[in-house]
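Example (one chain per record):
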Amino acid sequence: MLRTHSYLYPVCDKQLPENFFSLEEANIHIDILSSSVAEITDDLDLLAKGDGASLEDADGTDARMSNYFCSFDRPTINLDQQPSLVMRLDNARSDIRKWLTAFTNIPVTDENAMEHRLTRIFGFYTWLSVETCQNEDPTTLKHFEEQVCYIMGVMEEFVDAYRDGNSLSSSSKHVYQPQVLTGITMGTGLVACVCLIIAKFQHPHIRQRCLRLLRTIGPCGPFYSDDLVRYMQAVVDSSLG
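Predicted structure:
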């Protein structure tokens, strides 16, 4: 497919292992898998545009925000005439499931707790992206809610630990106390994961937890926090009719 942009993507000549023995190894492979998933969703976006599908501009948001989040709100695309894309999608789903299994071999320690959480979040985001990119059925999506609630807890723990400047021990009692932060960028996967969950899942409690996280972390990078929260709040409001 013809893309209007070009990026450098990470590559690795090693097979995806059955078990990871370091976070560095896991991060190398999830970077490669996420790039593959990004290419697939880019192609789905191009097909959607060719079919005349478009994302409604929520609350007058400018093009940069709408373009970034268009894949979150893309309708299911008919892939009957796209066998190679179907094969790539199936392979990506298989590979990310293998990655999640291999990642369970890496223990959490006091030294790696923060990085471990962030890698887990990025892996979950990549998995959820590929599992839901062709799925807009609310009934089917409800099957993912248990996993979504779990990763929400992980993200809240990460933000708490980031705020406090140290890792939470596994025995500590988690109390989520919002406080505006700076320095968490789009590239960590955390912000993108929160936005994907808001776009895909309509459970009010899940969405309110996500919005609270966005208001707390104050993401830096291509989007200002206020713009991002306003956009995602508009997504939530539009679903309420």
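Caption: Residues 40 and 73 are 15 Å apart (CA to CA).
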